[in-house]
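Figure caption, in words: inputs first, then the predicted bound structure.
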Amino acid sequence: MDNSQFFSNCAADTIREAAVALKAGHLVAFPTETVYGLGADARNPEAVKRIYEVKGRPSDHPLIVHISSINELEKWATEIPKYAINLARAFWPGPMTLILKRTEMARDFITGGQETVGLRVPSDPIALALIQEFEKISDSAIAAPSANRFGQVSPTCGADVLKELGQYLNQNDRILEGGISTIGIESTIIDCNAQQPMILRNGAVTKESIEIELGVECVESNPNSQVKFSGSFDRHYAPECRITVDAKAIEGAGFLALSHIETPRGMVRLASPKTVEEFARILYATFRAADQVGLASLVVSEPEGQGLSVAIRERLSKAAQGR
Ligand code: TXA
Ligand code: MG
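Bound structure (threonylcarbamoyladenylate present):
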């Protein structure tokens, strides 16, 4: 693709045209509040196949279906437990994906052959407008994984999508630029197929906030479960450089820590987020920056405590396993 397929001014007509492109079977990368997604018509097997090709992703790895509101839930999911409805009411639109029993709308090419489907209503205004426009013309929704090559770092701005996937996209595909993702790490994934909700991937909707909102306990995910989820592959979220967590000083390595932590001697400070929210927002851009300047190592001082810090540490431990 060339730059004419990169839209930094996402006015209503740009979004409408992007919805038409999706309907025609093309791919549209779009901003969400978590990370950028690479979208296709969730009911078009050829279009979805191209997502896998462009990402270089194994085809049994399921995709999240992005819907415009809780009203679309019953189209895609059935046997929805009461607590899942409560979760949707509390946290949608927002950074949360629910895994539910699928209807026949979610075919094997979306679910990786599983009987469940992942559903999310994002809050980013461009994402929501695109999904709404697409639902109007299609009786479908938008399947979208993060807009990176398989195992690489998720993009948090349109320019990073272009760098990451531009060479694999064609003249009919599009990238919608909507600025830097406000959250910066992927959605919380919650399996809703048992008596209690189970967190499969931590994110900005935290265990604590779920328990307060629902008044029920969230169970921890079982690493031996048969459910396939993001991060179950060792190479996830890893940049080129070696990520080390809370290591002693490494001469010439990059360094990322909260602003009150001093830079160890001989290390190159890449970012100084003041809060854990800012830490999450800049995390992947910092990974990319470390690669861009050719650093061999990046040392990260992990944020402590519960809440969003848990999701950041989860990403760091995956990244530290390398590629
Ligand atoms: O924040 C996000 O969730 C972003 C934005 C674009 O929405 N999307 C995202 O998609 O991170 P992806 O494909 O990179 O990661 C979603 C993970 C996948 O690794 C997949 O294994 C898991 O969600 N998933 C999807 N459907 C599932 C299902 N039915 N059962 C279990 N896991 C599922
Ligand atoms: Mg991903």
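The chain has ten helices and 16 strands.
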